[in-house]
User: What shape does this take?
Amino acid sequence: MRPFTLPPSVPLAFGPGRVAELGSLVTEALGAKQRLLLAVDPFATQSGLADAIAEALASDGHESSRFSDIASDPKAAQIDACARLARDVGATAVLAVGGGSALDVGKLAAAVAAETAPTEAYALMARPLPAGTLPIITLPTTSGTGAEVTQTCVFSLADGTKAWAWGQELMPRLAVLDPEVTASLPPALTAATGVDALVHAIESMTNRNAHPLSDPPALQAIALVRRWLPAAVADGQNIEARGHLQIAACLAGSAIALNGCAVAHAIGHALGTLGRVHHGRAVGLSLRAALAGNAAASPARHALVAEAFGLERAGRSDAALAAALPAAYDAFLRQVGLEISLADDGLAAGDVPRLVAECQSDENQPMLDSTCRPLPQSDLTALCHEMLTAR
Assistant: This one.
C-alpha cells in the first residue's frame, strides 16, 4: 500500500447567515483592515450577493475592489486580468466568490499576482508558482467542485485546451460555506454541480490511488449527495438540503485532493474542450459510460460505493453488489433531471475520434492512467461512443 500523507486542512465557517459575518471572519483569519479583491462571477454580481459581501467587509473596516469578468471554463487571460487588478489596487488578499470557475480564477490570480508571467506559463506546472501568494478566502455559491478546499485550479488556454495548476500556494486560508447563497441556483445547475461532487467521491474511492484512510470523506459525500440532491433539485429553498450538499462537495473535494480522479474526468475534461458541456454534467455522463467496466474490474471498491449509495448488501457478493451500481447510478441521474443525450450539444458518434484523441492529450492521460482498469484505445473508443450516442 502506498505511503499516505494528509495535506493541510482548510478552516471552515459553515452555516446559514455566514455572509453577514464575513467582516469578522476575515479579521479573524487575516487581521484587521484588509484590502480585498473580490473575484466574483456574474451570478454573484447580478443577485446582489457581491454588494452584500462588500457591505459585510466594510462593516469590519475592510476595503474591497471587484473583478467580475469570469465565465464558465475561464480563460487564462481572465486570470491574468484578475491578477493585474490585484496588483493595481494593492490587494492584500483575494476573496473568490461563485462556482468552481470563479474560485479557480480567484485562487490562481492570487498566486500569479506576485509575478508578471502569464497564467499559461504555469499550465501543468511547467513553471513553479511564485512565492508570495496573496492569502485566499473562498465562498462557493454552488455545491460541486470542492474547489474551496483544494490546491488545484482548472482553466482554458487560448486555443480552448483545458489545463490546470496545483500547489500548496493555492490552498485557501478559509472557506466560508453559507447554504443560503446556493438557494437560487436553478434545478439543472443544482443537479449538474451535485453530480460533480458525486463523481469526485466515486472516483476518489475507486481509482488506483484509493486508500482506506481517505475513504471516510468520500463515502460520506456519496451518501449525502444520494440523499439530499433530489430534495434540493425539487425545492431550491430547502436550506437543509443545500447545507448537506455543501458539506458533500467539500468532503468530495478533500477526497480528490488526496487521490485524484480517473477516466470520468479524463473524458469529461475532453468533452468540455470539444463541446463546452458543463463540467458536472460532462463527468457525470462519462462515469455513466465507464461505470460497468470499472465495477467489474474493481468489485470490492465499487461495492463500498454501492452501499454508500444506498444499495442493500442482502447477502450479495462484492461482485454482485458492484454489478448493481451502474443501473442505480443511471436511475439517479435521470431522477435529478440530468440530460443524458448530447445531441442538443452538437455532439454525435462522428465526434468519437476527436474525443478519444483529446482524452489522450498530455493533460488528460494521467487520469486515464489512474483508472482502476487498463484502457487501451479500443476500450476508450467504445466508452466515448457509448456516451455520445446515449439517450
